[in-house]
Structure formats: C-alpha cells, structure tokens
Write a structure and sequence with these properties.
Blueprint (H helix, E strand, L loop, with lengths): L2 H23 L28 E3 L2 E5 L2 E3 L2 E4 L3 E7 L8 E2 L14 E6 L3 E6 L7 E6 L1
Parallel strand pairs: 1-4, 2-5, 4-9
Antiparallel strand pairs: 2-3, 5-7, 6-8, 8-9
Length: about 140
Amino acid sequence: MKNIPVLIVIIAAIVVIFGGLMILTRRDASSEKITPKDGIAAINISEQPTITQVMTGSEVAIVNYKFSPGTLVVKKGQTINWTNKDVLKHTVVADDSSFTSNELKKDQVFSFTFNKAGTFSYKCGIHPSMTGKIVVE
C-alpha cells in the first residue's frame, strides 16, 4: 500500500511529460506549405474565384451590391434598363461619362440607348466596387 502514492506520482509525471511533448510537436496546419508534386498543381483554397455572368438581353438588375448580369452583350441601338432591387440607393455611371443616372431608389429604373458599338464599363457612383460592362456589337 505504501507504493501506491509513488505509483501515482510516476503516472502523473509521465502524463505531464507526454502532454508537454505533444504540445511541442503539434503543427499548425495554416502554416504548412503545399508544393506541386508529380505534375499536380497546388491550389490556394483561401482565394475565392470571381465569376462574371455574361448574358444577352436588355435588363440589368441591381441587387445585393452587384449588377446582374455583370456583363451584358447587346446590339447597337438597343435600350438597356437598370432596375434597383436593393433597399439602398445606387447609381449607374459610365467610366467614359457617356451615361449617368440619378440616384435610384428601390424599384426605380434608369434606361440608356446604346447607338455606338464598343465596350462600356460602368460602376455605381455611391459604391464604386460595384462594376459592370455593356458590350455593344
């Protein structure tokens, strides 16, 4: 019976030493580098791809801080309607100043007729990170 306290101390020491080794040898997965091997490319999954929607038609919705579609292909002479579906106000401003809307409240529409071929990039003047493109053929 006198050996039981000694045995408990030995077991406790082993647990402490083993636990300390586990902490010292633990690796942080976020700091690991993955390198290409055997023709397989490494991919950084923290980067989110950007998807640009290209469509034909005459309507652009302004919804969730985006122009949808992001790129619209139209024919020369076609009128495009931008409709604000967001609660917040937005504008439609061409990078080359060829068209500019007033502030659009929810469900308000801005229309513009494209009489010249080319690519027209635009943004929201209030939220410049919102961008879109009209391609006129």
